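Thread: Modeling a multi-component assembly for a lab meeting

Hi all, long-time lurker, first post. My supervisor asked me to bring a structural picture of a complex we are working on to next week's group meeting, and I have zero experience with this. I have the sequence lines for every component (707 residues in total). Could someone generate the structure of the whole assembly? Inputs are pasted exactly as I received them:
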Amino acid sequence: MSGVAAPTEVRAALVEADGAVRAVAAGSVLVAAVAHVWVIPEHLAEWLPAAVFFVAVSAGQVALAWLLRRSPSGAVVTAGLLGTIGLVVFYVMTRTLDLPFLPAAHQEHLPTAWGIGNGIPIFPGDRIEEVGVPDLVCLAAELVTISALCALATPVVRRTVTSGLFALGVAMLVLRLVGPLG
Amino acid sequence: MTLSRRDLMKISVFAGAAVALPLERSVNALSASASRIAQSALPRPFTIPFSRPPVAVPVRSDATTDYYRMTMRPARMEFIPGLQTEVWGYDGVVPGPTIRARKGRKVVVRHINDLPLVHPTLGYTPWTSVHLHGQASLPQYDGYASDITNPGQFKDYHYPNWQNSRTLWYHDHGVHHTAENVAMGLAGMYQIVDDLELSLPLPKGEYDVPLIVGDRMFNSDGSLLIDRNDNSGVYGDVITVNGRPWPVMKVKRRKYRFRILNASPSRSYKWSLDSGQSMQVIATDAGLMPAPRSVTSFRHGVAERYEVVIDFSKYKAGRRVVLRNTSPKNNIDFVNVDKVMAFDVVGDSFDKTNNSVPAVLNPNHPAMLVKESDAVQTRRFDFVREHGQWTINGQTWDDVVRSGFTKVLADPQSGSTEIWELRNLSGGWHHPAHIHFIDFRVLSRNGAPPLPHENGGKDVVFLGENESVRLLINFEKGRGKYMIHCHNLVHEDHDMMGQFVIRDDAMPADEPLSSRAIWLPDGDL
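Re: Modeling a multi-component assembly
Sure thing. I ran the full set together rather than chain by chain. Output:
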């Protein structure tokens, strides 16, 4: 017999591989969700909108993991990809840029009676968050999720997304070199 | 279903950037100093002429009181040749005008906050609270940190001036941003003179010279660069004396009295003359010492005042003598912070009166006459950094605010004498500790006698790393709540400040927040 597998064997192998990739994607997105749940209390203490954001993100990631139990539609894969890429880009921005809509550090004092505003200076970098262990765990999980979802995507989406990721990566490195990022 | 090698490479570029850039930013945390002006653009030391702050003129006087009106407002100064720097000054002057008061004659200062609603780069509203450091003010006129004056408001501060002669200073004390407001320029000198001082043959007039020392840092556009250095302190690479970088002063061949005030936000100094000559320390924070002390160098923490007499008669005309700074441990130092100013000796004629230092200065300084045996209690105050916050005995100013301004670190009885032991148990930083209202005497430092230059009445004591001091304090004439805090202004802001109350069961005290600022326009003073 030749070494060519029968069509049913090929289909079975593909289904098995699909299941493994979905499992990886679901597992990694769950890890990211747990990391986001982990930081909700500290953000709740600092700034309510941030806590709400992390609740929403965690819920979305749990939903994505649920949908990945079975072969998801192309729309789910594409939405999961774009959402996760968006989270990673936002993460990079919060760790490298003074985003004006975020609260600054060192603002923990009690309000001052009769005062206009809170009276607390905001220094360059005060709105940039430090990188912590949960961040790195979450980032690693989300990068695995992106890779797995790319593998599950249609060839056209995969090609478009990976090219976009390449362009994003190059753009971030260029922005770092010319100044704005970091 | 599978990713090609090309796909993986594309994803890796993105992943690499996403991992590396935040980590790199965290490791090399962006410092505000990144925009610091180049060293080569700074003025060379000893090229700018020395100047003295102007003397304030009262708007009116009556039989008992002199009335001043001071407006805190922005101004522009040229620290760096060719560049304009926005500063905030009392009457637009940095340092502010010097107020000269006579003992027993009252002073009222109307302080008007005409500062912008928002700081140009740091985004906060610069409310103020003016503290006359060294004055035994009533609680409501003491510059209580939370007794704020917003932009567009004013407050009249009443000063009794019943204490002996001394060098004081007024500066901002507004809660949360004292360091920034003082770095912007809100500080000036105030002197009380009395008959004893006038009777002594110490240098007077043009030979009695204020040296208000600060350190500043600048952006490349000339604007002030304020960097809290992770809340350790604000340090500059330019040393200013009376607002001039490393000035040079012409001096005649005689004795001069220098009133040195360390008005830096955080930097401590150790003075010496490059000639090796000794200086005679004649006064400390609370005025003339019992007797002068001769030293070749001495340490000077933030907010302390030391007055020294330097004898230039020993030098020939044409000689330059440099006042140097061998920086105490735990400052952030730069190229030329080891230099302060220069004295160029000239051969001009001079007035030969008031040209000596008597062996006895003020033998009856009240703070120096208190007996240790009179102490009824010993209290301990530990200055500690806990969980990133600066604390005194584990408490912060937020704790005072949270308590409705009732929480106190100590409650001595009016008229009583106590020993307060202040400790800095840590390495890595120093704390110039300031106790409001009272004068104290340093009993011991690390179990040994106080340093020679500390043998006078004081209101700030330097706590170097792992140092402890014992202070003898009489709480005479006082009642009410007063602050105790670290005078590294960044530590003070975050949040090494508490309060104590001087109890007087027979007479209730005024509350610090009992006389609030008023919105402009103001009426007659």
